[in-house]
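Notes from the 1:1 (GR / supervisor)

We went over the backlog. Supervisor wanted to see one worked example end to end before approving the batch request, so GR pasted a single chain during the call. The sequence is below; no edits were made to it. Supervisor asked that the structure be written out right there so they could see what the output format looks like.
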Amino acid sequence: MKKVLLILIAVLSFTACSSDDEGSNVTPDSINQTEWRHEESNRTYYIYFSVDNFMRISHPVYDVGSGEFHNEEIDGTFTYDKPNVTISLTGQCNNSGFVFSSCKVSGIISGTGLSIKDNGTTYKFDNSCYPNE
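Structure output shown during the call:
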């Protein structure tokens, strides 16, 4: 199951959007099966919104032993009431190096942007692909 999920993540990471979708200012009615990306200090964070209100965050973690970053994933659930999204994470969401300071955060989606405010900082995620409706 984990291998299938990793393959799905890889496919989503390399899927390009059509030029008609890029730069859209239309806020989506649904965020199911979308991927959102945030870059910070040469590290990339991904949020994947799936079906049935399931979601996953992939975030970089520094491995002291190898001296390199590797990605770890945290599962959770979400609710979307256009344009508001609430994310509730499970597992190791309070680990050092994780992008948010809380296991529950809220944000607003506007067009291809997702802004999440957490502990006085606004994190901006971008998505230029929307599911087919």
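Supervisor's comment: Residues 74 and 91 are 6 Å apart (CA to CA).
Batch request approved.
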